[in-house]
From TrEMBL:
Residues in FAD dependent oxidoreductase domain copies: 6-350
Superkingdom to which the source organism belongs: Eukaryota
Record-listed E.C. numbers: 1.4.3.3
Any GO MF annotation of the entry: D-amino-acid oxidase activity
Cofactor(s), names only, from the UniProt record: FAD
Chain segments annotated as transmembrane: 6-23
Family statement drawn from the similarity comment of this UniProt entry: Belongs to the DAMOX/DASOX family.
Alphabetic keyword roster: FAD, Flavoprotein, Membrane, Oxidoreductase, Transmembrane, Transmembrane helix
UniProt protein name: D-amino acid oxidase
């Protein structure tokens, strides 16, 4: 029957990973059409700003946990065998503070904080840290081998892999999802299916207009100082929408200091007071970052603000016909975009194959 023509809308980690997996099948002509591409830095484009690590938060037995579980092996393979992808192993410590036992943040991090988390049998070296090694305010802590992704290398690497497999990239904006089915994107040929990886854009895109998708603002400081390991805590003393996480990116990508989780806030401007709090929290937890000299010894590369595409019901992986056009959705991963990227893309690919299989009505 010949190859089917697909347009993927969105070139963040969801769109690029889906494009890569589809391109490996060899039976689709794929165009990735997006307003923003790797190399761009824009408040609308979440993927470049992400810390890009693996800290599973999906509850045991849930779809998010399944996506995260299915993403570990591909990321581990990249860290082990493909240094050019910008993914490296890093020991991760997760601290549960006594004072956060009943906080909303602790609830959201419940699985990550658990000494019996489902991913203990997935990631290497999962273990509890001895109580004697912890400060008095820490109730418990776990450690495991994680990965950290240098997004400035990884996103272009995904593009390069797609290009090797014949994927075409085009700048485009759409007011309605059906606009992506225009034959002009495929040199006048019929578009058989559209994959919607628009992230926050899904809330406004005609034909989708998913009102359950909202921004969760994140702010980070990227520094040249190197952290001894990756770290996250169950909360901070600076409010329930602020967080402490630290990770050093591969290949000289700097160290990410974060952060916050401000749901419903889409302010693109850096909050200088929040930046100071972020740096103070990091230095107090990791004195080695500055040799005990305080935040004035942090060597700042830049400050960043990104908007996580949070969806109330979790990532949407579904297929439907919209005005006669097959659409497969893969959006709304919130802050878990990288750590569930392959799992979500695998699920989306299965739906594409179902829609465009031999028995599908075109």
């Amino acid at each position: 029957m010949g190859q089917k023509n697909i347009v993927i809308v969105g070139a963040g980690v969801a769109g690029l990973t889906t494009a890569l997996l589809l391109s490996r099948e060899g039976r689709y002509n794929i165009v990735v059409a997006a307003k923003h591409m790797p190399g761009d830095y824009d408040i609308e484009y979440a993927s470049p700003w992400a810390g890009g690590n693996y800290m599973p938060v999906g509850a045991a037995g849930s779809k998010p946990a399944e996506y995260e579980k299915n993403t570990w092996a591909p990321l581990e393979d990249l860290a082990r065998n493909r240094p050019e992808a910008g993914v490296h192993f890093q020991e991760c410590h997760i601290y549960s503070r006594t004072k956060d036992a009943n906080s909303a943040t602790a609830d959201w991090f419940n699985e990550l904080l658990s000494p019996k988390a489902w991913f203990k049998d997935v990631v290497p070296d999962f273990r509890q840290l001895p109580q004697s090694s912890l400060s008095p305010d820490i109730k418990s802590a776990t450690a495991f081998t994680s990965v950290c992704i240098n997004t400035a290398i990884y996103l272009p690497w995904l593009v390069s892999q797609c290009l090797e497999n014949g994927v075409v990239f085009k700048r485009a904006t759409f007011s309605h999802i059906n606009d992506a089915a225009s034959s002009s994107l495929h040199k006048g040929r019929q578009v058989h299916l559209v994959v919607n990886c628009t992230g926050l854009g899904a809330s406004k895109l005609g034909g989708v207009q998913d009102s359950t998708v909202v921004p969760a603002r994140g702010q980070i400081v990227i520094v040249r100082n190197v952290a001894p390991n990756m770290l996250a805590t169950s909360g901070t003393d600076d409010g329930s929408d602020e967080a402490l996480y630290v990770m050093t990116r591969a290949a000289g990508g700097g160290t990410i200091l974060g952060g916050c989780y401000q749901k419903g806030n889409s302010d693109p401007q850096v909050d200088p007071n929040l930046a100071v709090r972020i740096m103070k929290r990091a230095v107090e937890t990791f004195p080695a970052l500055t040799g005990g000299k305080g935040i004035e010894a942090l060597d700042v590369i830049r400050h960043g603000v990104g908007l996580r595409p949070v969806r109330e019901g979790g990532t949407r992986i579904e297929k439907e016909r919209i005005n006669g056009v097959w659409v497969v959705h893969n959006y709304g991963a919130g802050g878990a975009g990288y750590q569930n990227s392959y799992g979500c893309a695998q699920a989306a690919v299965r739906l594409v194959d179902e829609a465009l299989g031999p028995s599908a009505r075109l």
